[in-house]
Amino acid sequence: MDKNRHEVLAESLTRILAERLVSLHKLFDELTIVIRAKDVHSVSEVLRDHEDLGFDTLVDLCGVDYSTYGDETNALGQSNGRRFAVVYHLLSVSHNHRLRMKVFAEETEFPAVDSVMKIWPGANWFEREAFDLFGIVFSGHSDLRRILTDYGFVGNPFRKDFPISGYVEMRYDEEQKRVIYQPVSIEPREITPYVIREQNYGNGHM
Question: Residue 37 domain-assigned?
Fold first, then answer.
């Protein structure tokens, strides 16, 4: 029986990456590999340059906060208690292959992963977005600064522990004639919807 494309790619990845491959699994007809943070740059170069792989295009890059996933994370990504991950979606145009690469930051207080901008220049704004929204630092990035939130924004809004109301609010001050930041004035409250039903609802009467 001939091997399908995923099996061929899986064998190539296992052979070429060898000990740098932490895990490989197939889910929803897609391959995902997990590698260590210290190997991001070297593995990315191999994925791009090896003739059997040829992942020349970075389609997307995003951050993930696994703080509320619990034990399920181990089955899906080998987190081993690590909170933040970076996920890379790669495309090989020549081989028509797609691959997901997952990397967990070793530290929670200061999550950091090497930048792949020199390998895939399209990572520039993707890494800035993950830095802005998750607080993941990409070492070696040439211009790592916020890209979606305001310069005075406090915190990282896609972290699971970030409050819905945020930490500060912005308004225009008439006396100072400028925009100012101040502590959030909205008090968090739980809203219970009021539901109106017909008198005989659920009793089988029409």
Answer: yes
